[in-house]
Amino acid sequence: MPTTCGNLQRTWGFSLLFGYPIEATDENWLHDCLCEMVHAVHEALDTGQAVPAWPDVIPLVHRTQLRTRAGLQQRLTVYAAAAKDLSQGERQRVLTCLIQQNRIADLLSCACDCESMSDLPQSLHAPAAQLFDFAYRLVIEIGIGDRHYKAIYAAMKYKVCPFCGCEYFDAPGAPREDRDHYLAKSRYPFAAANLRNLVPMGMKCNERYKLAQDILRDAAGARRVAFDPYVEREVAVELGTSVPFAAPDGETPAWQVAFVPDSPECETWDDIFHVRERMERDVLDTSFRRWLGEFARWFKARGGNPAPDTTALLTALRTYTDDVKLLGLNAREFLRAPVFEMLHQHCAAGNHRLTQLMLDLVST
Question: I want to staple 24 with a disulfide (CB 3.0 to 4.6 A). Which of 89, 103, 139, 151 is the partner?
Fold first, then answer.
C-alpha cells in the first residue's frame, strides 16, 4: 500500500523477503529424525550404554523410510565414534549447539545465540558436517526439496527472488533454483537439513553475493539481526532524495536508494546482497532512459496535449506512476514506480531544468 514518508507524498511499497509460506517447511521429518538419532547416541554414551544399533536408532515412525540408507548409517556410526571420545561435558556442549543452531527465528532476531562448528572440539567437525550434509542430500534425493519449492512457488504472487527483486524464478519441473542454506552449513552444519534454514534464492544472489557469508555476524564477528525469509513483511523503496542530472554523465540522477521502514535488518540484507548497489547499477542506470522514452510514448498514445503545461505534466506523471504500480513486483520493473514518484516530486518542487526536460520529452 502507498505510505507517507518525509516529504515524499507516496512511496512504492513491495515485499522484500516477502515471506515464504511457513507451511512449506512442514515436511521436515528427516531433519527431526536425524536430531532424535543424535540425541539417542549422546544419551547412550552419557549413561554408559551401547549406542542403539541400526536401524533401531531410527525413530519408529520413519524407520521403514530410512533403514536402507547405508550412507546415513555409515556417517552416524562415524559420528558416534567421534562423540564417544569426547567428555560428557563436551557432548552436552555439542547437543546444546545442535539445538541452538536450529532455533532459526530466534537466531535471526538475536533472541538467542549459538556456537559455530569452529567452536566445537576439532575431532567432531568432519563427522558432524558429513552426517548432516548427507541428510541434506537425502532431502533432495527423496523429493522433499522439490515439494518444498513447489509449495513456495505456488504461494508466491510474484515469481521473483525476494532477496533482490530482480531475478525470476522458474516453475517447478525446470532445473532447480539455487537452494541456499540461510545459515551457512559450513558454520552451522546442524541446520543443514532443516527446511526452516533452506530458502530458494536467485543464482546471482546465492553464487555471486551471499556465498558462505555469515548471516548472523558481520565481518568483524559482531552479532546482527537479519530478515526471516519465512515471515511476511513489506518494505518500500524511496528514491526521493536522488538528485536529477547529478550522475557523472550529467543526465542520469545520482540515485539515493532508501528503504522504508529502515532497520538493522535492512542493513544486514544490503550488506549480504549488495541490494542498493545492484539496484542502482543494474536497473536504475540501465533503465532510466528507456523508461523516459516509454513514458513519452504512453503520454502520446493517450492523446495528451501536444503542448502540455506543468500542471498537465504533473497529472500525467501521477497517473503513469499509478498505472505502473499495477504491475506489482515484476523483476526489475518494480523500481519504475519510485523513479516516477521521484520525478513528480522534483517537478512539483520547482526543478525547472527537469520540468523542461519532461515537457520536451512529451511534446510533439
Answer: 151
B/e letters for 10-38, b = 16+ CB within 10 Å, e = fewer, are bbbbbbbbbbbeeebbebbebbebbbebb
Decide: helix, strand or coil at residue 9. Answer: strand
| Beta-ladder partners of 198 | 181
232-270 core/surface letters (b: 16 or more CB in 10 A; e: else): eeebbbbbbebebeebeeeebbebebbbbeeeebbebbb
Q: How far apart are the C-alpha atoms of 227 and 29, rounded to whole Å?
A: 25
Instruction: Reply yes or no on whether the pLDDT at 291 is more than 50.
Output: yes
Cα 100 to Cα 38, 114, 124, 149, 188, distances in angstroms: 14, 5, 17, 25, 10
The predicted pLDDT at position 22 comes to: 95
> What is the tens place of the pLDDT at every residue in 297-308?
999 998 877 889
Integer Cα distance of 32 and 282 in angstroms: 41
The tens digit of pLDDT for each residue in 4-54 reads 333 333 444 444 556 799 999 999 999 999 999 999 999 999 999 999 999
Residue 135 CB neighbours (<10 A): 25
The CA distance from 291 to 276, in Å, is 19
